[in-house]
């Protein structure tokens, strides 16, 4: 463990990349996950290299000469962009992932941890009856949801590529599968955003404009959310300790599933605590439950003896809301005037 | 409207069959090249399709309106098992280059060639058989050649994505086990029928025992390359859907490996009787029953194909199995020295 590591983080300025920076360098964070003396960390953003280009990817690797890679970069988008651009999401992400893995292999990078997503899992409709809870072994047991099949297949292919690099070259290139992530530096653009940042932004606007939002649906669907800072800690732990090619689901336990109604209430409470009281928000039901098992994660963490605990949900929300309010002007909020179209 | 059709992988098993069906004066006129069609057969010597620029140049040279995409990195079981990354990556690049060059050049239709090996492996899946076009993605493929299989499956996904985003009708065909002249007869690599042919040929030539492996009981559907070629021609002219079509004989025409062995020997005997009646083809068959059988059955349904053919009113019949074997054996005997036998590589 004393040979120095040079770690390149692609997508370094996104939700998870920023969380990693925070966990590694902020003096208030837990020591166990802070950057170690034998680690040099580089965070790159798309301005620096277009990873869809093999040449630019190669130049990036020549510049930093990484020994390890945390690969977070991807072409992502919300539901609407995905639904009408499946080819772009499929093709661009395949190009990005292939360039990163292939360049890593050619430059003898020891470990690459890619970031998948629970959307890669088979769709509930028409899937085998024992599909839930989702586990690492179930990724390829049926087609993903049709709305973003391009993105999902590109992500699934990373797992296939990892196994192929292992089989042919003995490489330990692996992946993590986080459930729904939230935290500071999220994407709050209402056309695009995921559940929590979307609700946060709507709450904020409703209070600001003096309007009332009514949550759509029953609020009963359940989800497992993971705080970006916690996910970052797990990525760091995986980088230092996880040597398997099989992916790892990174999630809170099934028992910590929360309903959308609960989320709405807690978001509001966080704003109240932050500044003022507000009401409801909107959102559609989607699938009722998509429970994911974190049994493997708990087992490997326990085995490695690391002290890790998930940040309590309310605390994570509070930190996220505090950041959002403080950084609204520079956050990724999209064109707020489009709100009335939703 | 005139068509310019580019066939990638033009010199392979299926490409050669296409050339025969389109040009040979003895073949069925319904599938012969039509006056408004110009056909180009490209091989790997002409362009390395793993390279985007070379692919683009190939398209600029021929300016196709249609493409039959047969080119792929293929190999037998052993090559696949230890080179999954190469088979995955090279085939993804080939397919992506062909589809994206086709899209950029505004090609009207691309028909890619999948394979029944892309289907899910039977482990843990109920109701998998018979295979149908809907079952491609309901589980992981067999692990021995997962690289190749995933690359092929991705073609179907890409076709759907090109359809969804750009309205393209790029589609695919899924043949079952293909055999015919110009096959790969290299014993390390070959599929069932060419492998058995080559073994029988060598056994007779060297006066040794012909030893097919296994029990002979597994059943398979085989399709003659020239029948497959006719169906590709038919799809090019008549099929406008993005969903793939399984190209296979009906399930009832499954044959056992033992039946194949006996028919292959009979085909050699018939060939010898016509070329040198004074020296009958005589070989002793001894099954090596210690060797493992593959899966007992992997039946595929050809109902979609049968329905489409009927609806389109085309007259098509599969060549009887024995006749197809005779033609293949005749070709093999005549062309042994130039066929892909791998003999010199040893």
TrEMBL record, chain A:
Broad enzyme group: oxidoreductase
Gene Ontology biological process terms, A to Z: 'de novo' GDP-L-fucose biosynthetic process
UniProt xrefs under InterPro entries: Epimerase_deHydtase, GDP_fucose/colitose_synth, NAD(P)-bd_dom_sf
GO function term, MF aspect, one: isomerase activity
EC number: 1.1.1.271
Domain NAD-dependent epimerase/dehydratase: 7-246
A Pfam family per the record: Epimerase
Keyword field: Isomerase, NADP, Oxidoreductase
CDD domains: GDP_FS_SDR_e (cd05239)
PANTHER family named in the record: GDP-L-FUCOSE SYNTHASE (PTHR43238)
Protein name: GDP-L-fucose synthase
Organism: Rickenella mellea
From TrEMBL, chain B:
Family annotation (SUPFAM superfamilies): NAD(P)-binding Rossmann-fold domains
Pfam families: Epimerase (PF01370)
GO biological process: 'de novo' GDP-L-fucose biosynthetic process
Sequence ranges assigned to domain NAD-dependent epimerase/dehydratase in this UniProt record: 5-243
EC numbers on record: 1.1.1.271
Plastid found in the keyword field: no
UniProt signal peptide: none
Sample GO molecular function, one term: GDP-L-fucose synthase activity
Pathway linked to the protein: Nucleotide-sugar biosynthesis; GDP-L-fucose biosynthesis via de novo pathway; GDP-L-fucose from GDP-alpha-D-mannose: step 2/2
Keywords, in A-Z order: Isomerase, NADP, Oxidoreductase
Family membership noted in the UniProt record: Belongs to the NAD(P)-dependent epimerase/dehydratase family. Fucose synthase subfamily.
The name this protein goes by in its record: GDP-L-fucose synthase
Species in which this protein is naturally found: Rickenella mellea
């Amino acid at each position: 463990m004393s040979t120095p590591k040079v770690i390149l983080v692609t997508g370094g300025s996104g939700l998870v990349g920023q969380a990693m920076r925070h966990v590694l360098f902020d003096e208030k964070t837990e020591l166990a996950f802070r950057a170690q003396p034998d680690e040099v960390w580089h965070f790159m953003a798309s301005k620096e290299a277009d990873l869809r280009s093999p040449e630019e990817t190669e130049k990036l690797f020549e510049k930093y000469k990484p020994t390890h890679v945390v690969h977070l970069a991807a072409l992502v988008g919300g539901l609407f962009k995905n639904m009408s651009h499946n080819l772009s999401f499929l093709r661009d992400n395949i190009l990005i992932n292939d360039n990163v893995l292939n360049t890593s292999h050619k430059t003898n990078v020891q470990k690459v941890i890619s970031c998948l997503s629970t959307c890669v899992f088979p769709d509930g409709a028409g899937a085998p009856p024992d599909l839930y809870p989702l586990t690492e072994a179930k990724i390829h047991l049926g087609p993903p949801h049709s709305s973003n099949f391009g993105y999902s297949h590109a992500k699934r292919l990373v797992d296939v590529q990892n196994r192929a690099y292992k089989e042919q070259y003995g490489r330990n290139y692996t992946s993590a599968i986080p459930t729904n992530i939230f935290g500071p530096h999220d994407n709050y653009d209402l056309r695009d955003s995921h559940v929590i940042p979307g609700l946060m932004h709507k709450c904020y606007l409703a209070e600001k404009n003096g309007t009332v939002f009514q949550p759509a649906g029953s609020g009963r669907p359940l989800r497992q959310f993971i705080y970006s800072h916690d996910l970052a800690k797990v990525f760091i732990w995986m980088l230092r300790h996880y040597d398997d090619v099989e992916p790892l689901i990174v999630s809170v336990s099934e028992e910590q599933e929360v309903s959308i109604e609960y989320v709405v209430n807690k978001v509001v409470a966080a704003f109240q605590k932050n500044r003022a009281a507000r009401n409801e928000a909107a959102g559609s039901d989607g699938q009722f439950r998509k429970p994911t098992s974190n049994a493997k994660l708990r087992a490997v963490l326990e085995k490695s003896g690391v002290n890790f605990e998930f940040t309590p949900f309310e605390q994570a929300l509070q930190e996220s809301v505090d950041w959002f309010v403080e950084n609204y002007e520079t956050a990724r909020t999209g064109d707020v005037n489009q709100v009335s179209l939703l | 409207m005139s068509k310019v059709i580019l066939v990638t992988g033009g010199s392979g098993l299926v490409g050669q069959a296409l050339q025969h069906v389109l040009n040979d004066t003895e073949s069925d006129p319904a599938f012969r090249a039509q006056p408004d069609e110009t056909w180009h057969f490209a091989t790997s010597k002409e362009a390395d399709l793993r390279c985007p620029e070379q692919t683009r140049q190939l398209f600029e040279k021929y300016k196709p309106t249609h493409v039959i995409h047969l080119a792929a990195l293929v190999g037998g079981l052993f090559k696949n098992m230890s080179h999954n990354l190469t088979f995955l990556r090279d085939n993804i690049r080939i397919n992506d280059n062909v589809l994206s060059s086709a899209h950029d050049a505004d090609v009207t239709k691309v028909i890619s060639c999948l394979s029944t090996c892309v289907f899910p492996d039977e482990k843990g899946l109920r109701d998998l058989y018979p295979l149908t076009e809907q079952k491609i993605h309901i589980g992981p493929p067999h692990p021995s050649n997962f690289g190749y299989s995933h690359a092929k499956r991705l073609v179907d996904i890409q076709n759907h994505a090109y359809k969804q985003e750009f309205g393209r009708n790029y589609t695919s065909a899924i043949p079952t086990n293909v055999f015919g002249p110009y096959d790969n007869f290299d014993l390390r690599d070959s599929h069932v029928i060419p492998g058995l042919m080559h073994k029988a040929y060598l056994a007779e030539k060297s006066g040794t025992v012909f030893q097919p492996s296994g029990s002979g009981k597994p059943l398979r559907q085989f399709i003659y390359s020239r029948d497959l070629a006719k169906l590709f021609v038919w799809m090019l002219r008549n099929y406008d859907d993005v969903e793939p079509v399984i190209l296979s004989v009906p399930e009832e025409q499954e044959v056992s490996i033992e039946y194949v062995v006996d028919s292959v020997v009979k085909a050699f005997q018939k060939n010898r009787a016509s070329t040198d009646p004074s020296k009958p083809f005589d070989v002793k068959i001894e099954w090596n029953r210690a060797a493992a059988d593959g899966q007992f059955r992997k039946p595929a349904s050809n109902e979609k194909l049968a329905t489409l053919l009927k609806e389109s009113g085309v007259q098509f019949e599969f060549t009887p199995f024995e006749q197809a074997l005779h033609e293949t054996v005749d070709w093999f005997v005549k062309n042994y020295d130039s066929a892909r036998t791998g003999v010199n590589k040893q």
